[in-house]
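Problem: given the chain below (391 residues), write out its structure.
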Amino acid sequence: MGVKIREKPKGSGVYWAFIDHNGKRRAKKIGTDEKAALGIAKKIEAKLALGDFGVLEKTKSVKTFKAFAKDFLEGYATTALKESTYRGYRSILDKHLEPAFGKKPINEISRTEVKNFIFKKIKDGMSISRAKRIKATLSGIFSHAVEDGLILVNPAARLDRFLNAKDQSLSNEISPYSAKELEIYLETVRSHFAEHFPMFLTLARTGLRLGEALGLQWGDIDFRGEFIEIRRAWVNGRLTTTKTGKTRRVDATPLLLATLKSLNQRRKEQTLKNGWGEVPEWVFVNQDGKPLDPGNVRGRVHYKACEKAKLRRVRIHDLRHSYATIRISAGHNIADVSRQLGHASIKITVDTYYHWLPSQHTGEISELDEIGKTRNNPQPSRSKKEQGATD
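Solution.
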């Protein structure tokens, strides 16, 4: 009597719980995690001891992942989730989860399959944050399947530590475009996504963070003074301060100023056409005159531009790194670059972009030999007492 965990078939890495209680025997497939399987065995024994014999009932016909996910979405999700969250779940199911798991019985999806699925998404270029949202949706569905008794363990549980480790390693990587690559990228945006060109030119010519660009208002731009005042950021659908909490002034190139002037004129015409009443205060807006959604900017414009330009797929934040590395490599004053980027200290700038600093030290060191030939050798200073002893 009791519950035993066995690997079946041997060497397969798949564990089953074999239950023997008062003459009733059942076998339940657990998954590929031996430690989790042993934990489940203890839970089953505890339930049997308390008189809960549900685990001994014959397994009912198990739904496919697609069928269960549909019931989950139309039942729990429509009543417990906000409309925007529901739409997000629906999109993730349609685009990612159903193509991968839809036809499989929900109790036959292993932890290894889930892990490989998530990591392949990241390998194919998906951002860590997006992968985490997909994993969270998948885990939520499996959690309800556990509650309904269809599976004994959530195969998407405890994957966050892997994603967080991956996120940390990726977040430290800088992958800027060269000056030539950046111009190819901008020309591609101009050709294929003309309405968004002013914003991407702003990112490329000022080094602004995306949230800072989305938070720009027309009153922040001084066309005569040829600068832009950075006062706020638009992050997660709301206004916030800049990363350092300070306002800063960034220089604008002639091309950028001319482009923004032209955009302002078009915006006035757009206001009349759309019946907005007055020109939106935001510089970069959607069809409703509201700040652009950063997710749409990345997915519908930036990544597609990388692809059309046949360039490396980089993060949109790497446009900021491109601005910095191009200027630093050209020998521009690093203190000025640091100010423009809004770094809390110049040390951050140096530590981040050290490898792009121009290699000037070799020439300076070699000059020391020439200095020694043309000037008197410097002597250590002597105290008055020493001078008196020799004079």
